[in-house]
Amino acid sequence: MNPTIYTIILLSLATGTIVTMTSFHWLMAWVGLELNTLAIIPIISTLHHPRSTEAATKYFLTQAAASAMILFSSMINAGNTGTWDITQMSYAPSNILLSLALALKLGLAPAHFWLPEVVQGSTLPTALIIATWQKLAPMSLIYMTMNNLPSTILLMLGLTSSTGGGWSGLNQTQTRKIMAYSSIAHLGWMAVIASIMSNIMIMNLLVYLMMTTALFLSLICSKSKTIQDTATTWTTSPTLAIIMMLTLLSLGGLPPLTGFLPKWLVLEELIMQNLIPMATAMAMSALLSLFFYLRLTYSTTLTLSPNTLQMKFKW
Fold first, then answer.
1. Where is each NADH:quinone oxidoreductase/Mrp antiporter transmembrane domain found (predicted)?
2. Which of 11, 74, 294, 297 is in the most buried spot, having the most CB atoms within 10 Å?
């Protein structure tokens, strides 16, 4: 793609997110979300390959449907309460509709089926944008409407996402799909804590963005598209292999790494709210995710790829 056009598209992407995050009127929030969607469609379909075209179409359809549901729920709310203010969502049916629309927009289970397909059909840098930047606008809407969203629905969405993301990621061999399911599982943890304590949700989001970006950049650097590809990372750079190992273990939530902190705080808060079965289920679902992170770690750093003695390192 032409660098000038690419720059304009990326600026539109940033503008869309910022418009949504700074708006108080539902119509402006919707405009920001639409701008976001329209800007990333050409980025996904740059490859001119049937798979990327399919991914772009799937992404467009789900995001347009979710945006329409958000606009519909805000219209119902405005009709009943007379206000378009994002923070004044006081009509119950529109809150339920809004939480389901945001779940579809983020890719929370059971509305997550589009995410792995879209990520798999994109390039690694595009997958990075979808898994990180594209989560900011919907998460900011959840943050602003937090006090009114039905907490039972959020807890159930969070639990299904965490379990579904871990379960589905087990039999994947493509790193992009693994990262997509990892994203679904992490968003589940954020959805669970959203209605209880928003500060922990923000911290969880920031830690997730940081670790996912680090891992995607490592995958881009080593050109790893499948688990088999990661086995040759150490020949490119042993340092990169170690960084990937630490990032993967951190994403899995192993102490004393950074990724353990949000999980620990979420579980602690759930127990304080007397949601002990919920906390147990979430901790169990984290083990599912940990399994495929460990498998990636194993192939990256603990195995030797078949090579000749003359060619120890690529460099």
1. 25-288
2. 74
